[in-house]
Amino acid sequence: MALCLSQVFNKDKTFRPRKKFEPGTQRFELYKKAQASLKSGLDLKTVVQLPPGENINDWIAVHVVDFFNRINLIYGTMSEFCTQKSCPIMSGGLKYEYRWQDDHKYKRPTKLPAPQYMCMLMEWIEMLINNEDIFPTRIGVPFPKNFQQVCTKILTRLFRVFVHVYIHHFDSIISMGAEAHVNTCYKHFYYFIREFSLIDHRELEPLKEMTERICH
After folding, report:
1. CB distance 62 to 90 below 8 Å
2. Which of these ranges, 31-40, 41-50, 156-165, has the smallest mean pLDDT?
3. Cβ atoms of 90 and 98 closer than 8 Å
4. Beta pairing partners, 96
5. What does the alpha-carbon distance between residue 209 and residue 95 come to, in Å, rounded to a whole number?
6. What is the per-residue pLDDT across 71-96, written as a single tens digit (0 to 9) for each?
7. What letter would DSSP give residue 201?
8. Contact call for residues 98 and 116 (beta carbons, < 8 A)
9. Residue 188 assigned ligand-binding role
10. CA torsion 3→125→161→4, rounded to 10°?
11. How many angstroms separate the Cα of 16 from the Cα of each of 47, 111, 145?
């Protein structure tokens, strides 16, 4: 019997509080539509396509928040295996190293242990998606002109969580019986960012071989 994501992962271990959509809003309705498509068994390449008549920025906003919640849950569960001792640098194998920069505390790219990088990342994303000037929730309030650029940066950094988890903690994923669920989340994420060209292809290189294998 297949388990749902919440049965595999402990919701109490979510790294950051889940961002929820307000019932009755257009964003909530879009979220329900996206979730219904996911559960219907439709091909993930089809699921990510913009529904007819919907606003592309609303569609992207819904998915950015949903991916934040899902990846948050995955890393929150894996975080006990990801320590300053096991992961002194935020990396994806020997070839890829990710440095943190946020234009506030870290104004220059800075080497950080993976757990600290993840903490900074989730706090940074949470701040952005709760900012009404960037992710407006009120009807009639337009998205900023740089909205998709902001989303590209968020999704690019979330992709690095997949890179780190797959390369450094995949044994833990398997031991928890979560491989199929993490793979499904990754495929959903990958098809979405490819559908709307939201991440530079060079950023995808660390997982290129795996992606070719599981994303047909």
Report:
1. no
2. 31-40
3. yes
4. 92
5. 14
6. 998 898 888 999 999 999 999 999 99
7. G
8. no
9. no
10. 0
11. 26, 22, 28
Q: What angle do CA 183, 188, 192 make, to 5 degrees?
A: 145
* Helices 56-78 and 26-39, axial angle in degrees (round to 10): 60
> 106: which 2 tokens?
């870290």
In which residue are the tokens 């049965």 written? 7
Q: Check: CB of residue 115 under 8 Å from CB of residue 24.
A: no
Scanning the chain, the segments in alpha helix (DSSP H) are 5-8, 26-39, 44-47, 56-78, 114-129, 147-168, 170-175, 179-195, 208-214
Q: How far is CA 93 from the centre of its chain?
A: 20
Is 181 known as a binding-site position?
no
Helices 56-78, 147-168: crossing angle, 10 deg rounding:
30
Measure the CA–CA gap between 143 and 141, rounded to whole angstroms.
Answer: 7
Which of 71-75, 78-82, 134-138, 202-206 is the most confident on average? 202-206
- Sign of the alpha-carbon torsion through 20, 115, 12, 169: positive
- Residue 215, annotated ligand binder? no
**What does the DSSP 8-state code read for residue 110?**
B
How many CA within 13 A on the CB side of residue 149? 3
- The CA distance from 211 to 189, in Å, is 11
- Alpha-carbon torsion, ordered 156, 147, 60, 137, to 10 deg: 130
Mean pLDDT check: name the lowest of 14-28, 95-109, 119-133: 14-28
pTM (predicted TM-score): 0.84
Quote the tokens at residue 58: 């609303």
